[in-house]
Design a protein that fits this description.
The complex is a heterodimer. Chain A is mainly alpha-helical. Chain A contains 15 helices and two strands. Chain B is of the alpha/beta class. Classes of the chains: A mainly alpha, B alpha/beta.
Chain lengths: 322, 250
């Protein structure tokens, strides 16, 4: 007879594909040294999408302005490196803290209203930050972007590493942050807190009726997601040595949503799979026909939605009925 | 008997409609009270007021002598005012086991833990086991709720409320849609609740009401029409005219 204790333990067990994926991520640094720049981009996008999954997939909060936190983290890390000190770890911590603060403040805007109002409000917050970064050009460089960001060496237990032009250090750094966030996220979603998010996503009325404070949970998860998005933004600024208005742009928010749709929401790894597919597709299609990348992305999305992700990822079921 | 839950002059207005009109009731500790009345009498509105889903226009609600009128729904649940819904309100993507484990965790005050796995606390799993068995959900414990048959979901609806360790349990038509043969089972479980838990039941099936309840409150047009023990109410000609008579026609 299976008991509840077993059942609850079983739900949180490590699955083989999770371990394989983690192994593959680490391995990619060793076996694909020439692709570090692309891999770095993928990992940053994956982390950004992971943070969106916490609010969209787990908590049911739609957002078209998640770039607000990504961009905020980006500028925070870049400005810290330029004006205060070039240490990447401290810059990262600061970016996370500031993005979390912004998340906590703006979370009150998403507590009430419908999905449509949330789409508009999140879009609005990102637009405001975009314009602020544009106007405050004495600080941010405005439309030219923040140039002259020079990162110091990355201090690790294995020694200090400079950020190199091939992106080896950058990718290792990004990978480390991604895996740490993934492990923390995994802990989080299997905890009572994580389940309470799913509960309020499925049925807010009942969530309150079992004694959960729905609003407090939403503020908490929005803050956490903002912090992780801030970390992703900081990674971009630190590994590229540059921050520009583009980090706040609408296409960032839309792109991360696409990535999550491609990879699937609500199981934490959708962002990683989605980012891999999205970036590789972009790379392949752009190399083949540079002008028409958006066309083929569109075709891919239509097919994905019409056929369904399950069916698309299981070719052996294509000729089965039903 | 001491009063656990009390309303004083409770009033709710929606525009020109007054679904709850100056309702003052007292529910004693361990009560088995039925709340009956014709359709539109304001039964569900009263439950919504008691649980904080709706805010009253006037009047107050008291639990153990403390005014809880201003408390949010989740705060009332923590104090032991728990309800079930006429239409199932469940967590579709979770399993019955996860739903119950979360409810038990919330009741224990550990639902905000974010570092430990759900069910790490040793008190959670045994309580889930008991509830799953009691409600015959053990065979579907690990299936997603949205895939369960209606009868199972109905059982989970009530099990979820009991996982919150209610002191006052408000049952809004608990056996709605449940096949005849399985209704008694649900009532057996409700009857087996600890004697100090107060139960307020909304039910249309008069046989069930008279079998289960010791006292009855009759609502008509949002106001208390009659109140008393089962014998008195079932023999009251006015109640028969207003409620039972209408039930025959309606």
């Amino acid at each position: 007879m299976k008991t509840a204790a077993d059942g609850l333990k079983h739900a949180a067990r490590w699955r083989w594909w999770e371990l394989t994926l983690l192994g593959a991520l680490v391995l990619s640094w060793f076996v694909l040294p020439g692709q570090s720049l692309l891999l770095n981009e993928i990992a940053i996008l994956a982390l950004f999408a992971l943070s969106l999954d916490l609010i969209l997939g787990y908590s049911g909060i739609v957002s078209l302005g998640h770039a607000a936190f990504f961009g905020f983290g980006s500028y925070a890390a870049a400005l810290f490196a330029k004006l205060v000190m070039p240490d990447p770890w401290l810059g990262m911590l600061l970016a996370i803290a500031l993005a979390a603060l912004l998340g906590a403040i703006t979370s009150v805007l998403i507590l009430r209203g419908t999905d449509l109002t949330r789409l508009m409000v999140t879009l609005g917050v990102a637009s405001i930050l975009y314009e602020l970064a544009n106007k405050l050009d004495w600080l941010t460089g405005g439309a030219d972007g923040l140039q002259g960001v020079v990162m110091g060496p990355l201090w690790t237990p294995f020694g200090a590493f400079d950020f190199d032009i091939a992106g080896r250090t950058a990718y290792a750094y990004t990978l480390f942050v991604l895996i740490v966030c993934l492990l923390v996220g995994r802990r989080l979603v299997h905890s009572p807190f994580g389940y309470s998010l799913q509960a309020l996503r499925d049925n807010r009325l009942r969530a309150a009726s079992i004694g959960l404070s729905v609003n407090a949970r939403l503020v908490a998860v929005y803050t956490i997601a903002a912090a992780i998005a801030g970390a992703a933004g900081a990674l971009l600024a630190q590994t590229s040595g540059f921050a520009s208005l583009d980090v706040f742009d609408f296409h960032r928010s839309a792109e991360v949503l696409l990535v999550l749709v491609i990879g699937g929401t609500g199981y934490l790894y959708g962002g990683i799979f989605g980012a891999i597919v999205f970036k590789l597709l972009h790379d392949l299609v752009s190399a083949w026909t540079p002008q028409y990348w958006n066309f083929w992305l569109g075709v891919f999305l239509v097919v994905l939605v019409l056929v369904g992700r399950d069916k698309l990822t299981k070719p052996w079921t294509w000729w089965k009925r039903g | 008997m001491s009063t656990v839950l009390e309303t004083r002059g409770l009033l709710k207005r929606f525009g020109g409609i007054t679904p709850t009109n100056d309702v003052s009731i007292q529910v004693e500790r361990g009560a088995r009270r039925a709340l009956i009345g014709p359709n539109g009498a304001g039964k569900t509105t009263l439950i919504n007021l008691l649980t904080g889903v709706l805010e009253p226009t006037a009047g107050s609600i008291w639990l153990d002598g403390a005014d809880i009128t201003q408390l949010a729904p989740h705060q009332r649940v923590r104090r032991g005012v728990v309800r079930t819904f006429q239409i199932n309100q469940l967590f579709g993507e979770l399993t019955p086991l996860q739903s119950l484990a979360l409810s038990v965790s919330a009741q224990l005050g550990i639902s905000a833990q974010w570092w430990k796995r759900l069910g790490t606390d040793a008190r959670v799993a045994p309580r889930c086991d008991t509830l799953l068995k009691q409600f015959h959900l053990d065979d579907v414990a690990d299936q997603q709720v949205k895939h369960l048959a209606y009868g199972k979901r109905r059982l989970l609806e009530i099990a979820t409320a009991l996982a919150c360790e209610p002191r006052v349990l408000l049952l809004d038509e608990p056996v709605a849609g449940v096949p005849e043969g399985e209704r008694q089972e649900i009532f057996d479980i409700i009857n087996a609740l600890p004697a100090d838990v107060s139960v307020l039941l909304i039910e249309h099936d008069m046989d069930l009401v008279f079998n289960f309840a010791k006292s009855v409150t009759v609502l008509v047009n949002g106001a208390v029409f009659a109140e008393g023990d089962v014998q008195t109410i079932s023999n009251d000609p006015r109640v028969k005219a207003v409620y039972l008579g209408e039930a025959v026609h309606g």
